[in-house]
Amino acid sequence: MRSQSSIAYEKIKEMIFQLELLPGARISEVQIAKKLSLSRTPVHDALRRLASEGLVRIEANKGATVSEFSDEEIREIGAVRLSLDLLSQQLASYYGSAADFDHLDQLAEICEYASSQGDVYGRIRKDCDFHLAISEISKNQKLIEQQQEIYQQIYLIQISKYTDIEDSMVQICHHKPLVTAMRKRDLEQIRSLTYQHLFDFYRLNSYLPTGFNAL
Questions:
Q1: What's the start-to-end Cα distance of the chain, in Å?
Q2: Domain boundaries, the chain
Q3: Which pLDDT value is given to residue 171?
Q4: What pLDDT, in 10s, does the model give residues 189-214?
Q5: Which residues are registered as beta bridge partners of 65?
Q6: What 3-state DSSP class applies to 181?
Q7: What pLDDT does 118 receive?
Q8: pTM of the entire structure?
Q9: pLDDT tens by residue, 30-51
Q10: Angle, alpha carbons 45-147-110 (nearest 5°)
Q11: CATH for 4-66, among 1.10.10.410, 3.40.50.1950, 3.40.50.2300, 1.10.10.10?
Q12: Among 6, 31, 142, 154, which residue is least crowded by beta carbons within 10 Å?
């Protein structure tokens, strides 16, 4: 049986991800507790947990707000994502089976379908699913845990930054070529596609590809 703190955590996170609570918005413990029919203690605990995951910010005398990422913070998250994605993909190219790569191709197609239907948020969710599935193939539990945490922040950034399906579709054009590169264990192509995949949205520094050539 889930604790009240776990229930509050899931409900508040859902409100954030559905943009019921917008980035930068103050989160009232009293109002949330009333809405969820809970006491303030589990709501307080849930907000602390969300803060530890980067989805909420808590400041003394100001309370909690939904995280709103600056351009520099987004660039920093993009650099971390680049390093984790590259590690995941290179490990997946080593450990992955034909069935694993077939599954990734299926996820890529689901992502494309969401885009074709004009479903921006569905496309973003499936994009995260695609990349997290790659990390699962890596067989590195610590990497999987780090990816799961940072992709929550990535999801929040994307749903708050993308404004239409055309912008959103740019993110999926490299999925299938990336799967092909992993099947072939073509590490150079993996690095190239991954950097192309992330460069514009995160406004990554141009020196990064050179820095990752040694991986």
A1: 44
A2: 4-66, 71-212
A3: 67
A4: 999 999 888 888 888 877 665 545 54
A5: 26, 57
A6: helix
A7: 83
A8: 0.88
A9: 999 999 999 999 999 999 999 9
A10: 110
A11: 1.10.10.10
A12: 142
> Which strand (E) or helix (H) includes residue 76?
helix 71-95
The CATH number given to 71-212 is 1.20.120.530
Q: Rounded distance, CA 111 to CA 172, Å? A: 7
b/e per residue, 121-156, with b = 16+ CB within 10 A? bbbbbbbbebbebbbbbbebeebbebbeebbbbbbb
pLDDT reported for residue 209: 56
Handedness of CA 173, 107, 117, 203 (dihedral sign): negative
Q: How far is C-alpha 56 from the geometric centre of its chain's CA atoms? A: 15
The three-state (H, E, C) secondary structure of 93-145, written as one string? HHHCCHHHHHHHHHHHHHHHHHHHCCCHHHHHHHHHHHHHHHHHHCCCHHHHH
Cβ-contact 133, 178 below 8 angstroms:
no
Q: 215: pLDDT confidence band, cut at 50, 70 and 90?
A: very low
CB-hemisphere CA count at 13 Å for 205? 11
CA angle 175, 97, 193 (to 5 degrees): 25
Percentage of the chain exceeding pLDDT 70: 91
Q: What is d(CA 120, CA 8) in angstroms, rounded to the nearest whole number?
A: 27
Q: Which of 109, 149, 150, 113 is nearest to 130 (CA)?
A: 109
